[in-house]
Amino acid sequence: MLLHVTKQASIYAENCWFWVADHELDLDDHNQIDIYNGRGVLIESENGPVWMYGTSSEHNVLYNYQIANAKNVYMGAIQTETPYFQSNPDATVPFTPNPQYSDPDFSTCTTAACKKAWGLRIVNSKDIHIFGAGLYSFFENYAQTCLATESCQEDMVSLECGNEGVYLWGLSTKAATRMVTVDGVGVVEQGDNRSNFCSTLVVFEEV
Known about the structure:
The protein is built from no helices and 13 strands.
Protein backbone atom coordinates (compact mmCIF):
# COMPACT_ATOMS: atom_id res chain seq x y z
CA MET A 1 0.00 0.00 0.00
CA LEU A 2 1.38 3.39 -0.96
CA LEU A 3 -0.64 5.54 1.46
CA HIS A 4 -3.16 4.60 4.17
CA VAL A 5 -5.26 7.34 5.75
CA THR A 6 -6.58 5.37 8.71
CA LYS A 7 -9.95 5.59 10.47
CA GLN A 8 -8.95 8.23 13.02
CA ALA A 9 -6.62 10.16 10.74
CA SER A 10 -6.84 13.43 8.88
CA ILE A 11 -4.48 14.57 6.15
CA TYR A 12 -3.52 17.49 3.97
CA ALA A 13 -1.44 16.48 0.95
CA GLU A 14 -0.44 18.32 -2.19
CA ASN A 15 1.80 17.62 -5.18
CA CYS A 16 2.33 13.95 -4.27
CA TRP A 17 3.06 11.23 -6.82
CA PHE A 18 2.34 7.75 -5.44
CA TRP A 19 4.13 5.71 -8.10
CA VAL A 20 4.90 2.05 -8.65
CA ALA A 21 7.75 2.07 -11.13
CA ASP A 22 6.92 0.78 -14.59
CA HIS A 23 10.33 1.43 -16.13
CA GLU A 24 13.98 1.40 -15.16
CA LEU A 25 15.39 4.69 -13.89
CA ASP A 26 19.02 3.78 -13.21
CA LEU A 27 20.01 2.50 -16.65
CA ASP A 28 20.17 4.53 -19.83
CA ASP A 29 17.66 2.37 -21.72
CA HIS A 30 14.80 2.97 -19.20
CA ASN A 31 13.37 -0.45 -20.07
CA GLN A 32 9.92 -1.47 -18.88
CA ILE A 33 9.77 -3.49 -15.67
CA ASP A 34 7.02 -5.29 -13.74
CA ILE A 35 6.68 -4.46 -10.05
CA TYR A 36 3.62 -5.63 -8.12
CA ASN A 37 2.04 -3.48 -5.41
CA GLY A 38 -1.42 -4.42 -4.22
CA ARG A 39 -2.98 -1.13 -3.16
CA GLY A 40 -2.50 2.51 -3.99
CA VAL A 41 -4.08 5.21 -1.79
CA LEU A 42 -6.61 3.95 0.77
CA ILE A 43 -8.68 6.55 2.62
CA GLU A 44 -10.68 5.28 5.61
CA SER A 45 -10.95 8.48 7.67
CA GLU A 46 -14.28 8.23 9.51
CA ASN A 47 -14.65 11.96 10.16
CA GLY A 48 -12.01 13.67 8.04
CA PRO A 49 -11.21 16.12 6.86
CA VAL A 50 -9.07 14.76 4.05
CA TRP A 51 -7.62 17.32 1.65
CA MET A 52 -5.60 16.21 -1.36
CA TYR A 53 -4.48 18.59 -4.10
CA GLY A 54 -2.59 17.53 -7.19
CA THR A 55 -1.94 13.86 -6.39
CA SER A 56 -1.37 10.84 -8.57
CA SER A 57 -1.48 7.11 -7.88
CA GLU A 58 -0.24 4.78 -10.58
CA HIS A 59 0.27 1.11 -11.49
CA ASN A 60 -1.23 -0.61 -8.44
CA VAL A 61 -2.80 -4.05 -8.89
CA LEU A 62 -6.17 -3.77 -7.09
CA TYR A 63 -6.89 -0.05 -7.18
CA ASN A 64 -5.16 3.28 -7.39
CA TYR A 65 -7.52 5.28 -5.14
CA GLN A 66 -10.04 3.76 -2.76
CA ILE A 67 -12.27 5.65 -0.32
CA ALA A 68 -13.94 3.21 2.08
CA ASN A 69 -16.23 3.94 5.05
CA ALA A 70 -14.95 7.51 5.01
CA LYS A 71 -16.39 10.99 5.40
CA ASN A 72 -15.50 14.55 4.43
CA VAL A 73 -13.00 13.94 1.65
CA TYR A 74 -11.90 16.55 -0.89
CA MET A 75 -9.59 15.59 -3.73
CA GLY A 76 -8.61 18.06 -6.44
CA ALA A 77 -6.75 17.14 -9.65
CA ILE A 78 -6.10 13.43 -9.19
CA GLN A 79 -4.56 11.16 -11.82
CA THR A 80 -4.13 7.40 -12.25
CA GLU A 81 -2.73 4.84 -14.67
CA THR A 82 -3.71 1.16 -14.79
CA PRO A 83 -0.71 -1.22 -14.68
CA TYR A 84 0.67 -1.73 -18.16
CA PHE A 85 1.10 -5.49 -17.67
CA GLN A 86 -2.56 -6.18 -16.88
CA SER A 87 -4.25 -8.40 -17.80
CA ASN A 88 -1.15 -10.61 -17.86
CA PRO A 89 -1.54 -11.19 -14.97
CA ASP A 90 -4.89 -9.66 -14.12
CA ALA A 91 -5.90 -7.91 -10.88
CA THR A 92 -6.54 -11.19 -9.05
CA VAL A 93 -2.81 -11.99 -9.12
CA PRO A 94 -0.63 -12.10 -7.05
CA PHE A 95 -2.53 -10.62 -4.06
CA THR A 96 -5.43 -12.15 -2.13
CA PRO A 97 -8.19 -9.61 -1.37
CA ASN A 98 -8.26 -8.71 2.31
CA PRO A 99 -11.64 -7.73 3.81
CA GLN A 100 -9.78 -5.76 6.49
CA TYR A 101 -8.98 -3.21 3.79
CA SER A 102 -12.31 -3.51 1.89
CA ASP A 103 -10.43 -4.86 -1.11
CA PRO A 104 -12.26 -5.49 -4.39
CA ASP A 105 -12.34 -9.17 -5.34
CA PHE A 106 -13.45 -8.94 -9.00
CA SER A 107 -15.69 -11.96 -8.38
CA THR A 108 -18.39 -10.73 -10.77
CA CYS A 109 -15.99 -10.28 -13.68
CA THR A 110 -16.37 -12.54 -16.70
CA THR A 111 -13.65 -11.02 -18.91
CA ALA A 112 -9.99 -10.20 -18.63
CA ALA A 113 -10.72 -6.53 -19.37
CA CYS A 114 -12.91 -6.41 -16.25
CA LYS A 115 -10.16 -7.72 -13.96
CA LYS A 116 -8.09 -4.56 -14.01
CA ALA A 117 -7.21 -2.02 -11.34
CA TRP A 118 -9.91 0.45 -10.39
CA GLY A 119 -8.86 4.02 -10.98
CA LEU A 120 -11.20 5.20 -8.23
CA ARG A 121 -13.41 3.10 -5.95
CA ILE A 122 -15.74 4.70 -3.37
CA VAL A 123 -17.45 2.38 -0.88
CA ASN A 124 -19.99 3.24 1.84
CA SER A 125 -18.77 6.81 2.20
CA LYS A 126 -20.27 10.26 2.69
CA ASP A 127 -19.53 13.79 1.55
CA ILE A 128 -16.91 12.99 -1.05
CA HIS A 129 -15.89 15.73 -3.48
CA ILE A 130 -13.60 15.05 -6.44
CA PHE A 131 -12.72 18.13 -8.45
CA GLY A 132 -10.85 17.08 -11.57
CA ALA A 133 -9.83 13.45 -12.21
CA GLY A 134 -7.85 11.97 -15.10
CA LEU A 135 -8.00 8.17 -14.89
CA TYR A 136 -6.10 6.47 -17.69
CA SER A 137 -5.72 3.00 -19.17
CA PHE A 138 -3.26 2.81 -22.05
CA PHE A 139 -2.27 -0.84 -22.39
CA GLU A 140 -3.37 -4.44 -22.58
CA ASN A 141 -0.32 -6.52 -21.64
CA TYR A 142 1.97 -3.74 -22.94
CA ALA A 143 0.17 -3.61 -26.30
CA GLN A 144 -1.77 -0.50 -27.28
CA THR A 145 -4.09 -1.84 -29.95
CA CYS A 146 -6.95 -1.43 -27.45
CA LEU A 147 -6.67 2.34 -27.82
CA ALA A 148 -8.17 2.14 -31.29
CA THR A 149 -11.50 1.13 -29.74
CA GLU A 150 -11.01 2.92 -26.39
CA SER A 151 -11.40 -0.44 -24.63
CA CYS A 152 -8.22 -1.23 -22.70
CA GLN A 153 -10.38 -2.05 -19.68
CA GLU A 154 -14.09 -2.33 -18.93
CA ASP A 155 -14.58 -0.11 -15.85
CA MET A 156 -12.72 2.75 -14.20
CA VAL A 157 -14.82 4.25 -11.36
CA SER A 158 -16.90 2.17 -8.94
CA LEU A 159 -19.44 3.55 -6.46
CA GLU A 160 -20.67 0.90 -4.03
CA CYS A 161 -22.76 0.22 -0.93
CA GLY A 162 -24.99 3.27 -0.60
CA ASN A 163 -22.70 6.27 -0.65
CA GLU A 164 -24.18 9.65 0.27
CA GLY A 165 -23.14 12.96 -1.20
CA VAL A 166 -20.56 11.87 -3.77
CA TYR A 167 -19.72 14.50 -6.37
CA LEU A 168 -17.37 13.85 -9.28
CA TRP A 169 -16.62 17.10 -11.11
CA GLY A 170 -14.56 17.07 -14.30
CA LEU A 171 -14.12 13.31 -14.60
CA SER A 172 -12.02 12.23 -17.57
CA THR A 173 -11.23 8.59 -18.34
CA LYS A 174 -9.10 7.03 -21.06
CA ALA A 175 -9.90 3.74 -22.80
CA ALA A 176 -12.34 2.38 -20.21
CA THR A 177 -15.55 1.14 -21.80
CA ARG A 178 -17.63 2.28 -18.82
CA MET A 179 -16.59 5.42 -17.05
CA VAL A 180 -18.74 4.89 -13.93
CA THR A 181 -20.46 1.89 -12.38
CA VAL A 182 -22.85 1.96 -9.41
CA ASP A 183 -23.09 -1.27 -7.42
CA GLY A 184 -21.72 -3.20 -10.37
CA VAL A 185 -23.99 -1.71 -13.02
CA GLY A 186 -22.47 0.47 -15.71
CA VAL A 187 -24.23 3.83 -15.75
CA VAL A 188 -21.92 6.00 -17.88
CA GLU A 189 -20.47 4.80 -21.20
CA GLN A 190 -17.30 6.36 -22.51
CA GLY A 191 -18.66 6.26 -26.06
CA ASP A 192 -21.39 8.71 -25.11
CA ASN A 193 -18.95 11.22 -23.65
CA ARG A 194 -16.01 11.48 -26.01
CA SER A 195 -14.12 14.75 -25.84
CA ASN A 196 -10.60 14.94 -27.29
CA PHE A 197 -8.00 12.72 -25.67
CA CYS A 198 -10.43 11.31 -23.12
CA SER A 199 -14.10 10.82 -22.43
CA THR A 200 -15.27 13.52 -20.05
CA LEU A 201 -18.16 14.28 -17.68
CA VAL A 202 -18.84 17.71 -16.28
CA VAL A 203 -20.37 16.20 -13.15
CA PHE A 204 -21.65 12.90 -11.77
CA GLU A 205 -23.54 12.85 -8.48
CA GLU A 206 -24.60 10.11 -6.08
CA VAL A 207 -26.69 11.86 -3.44
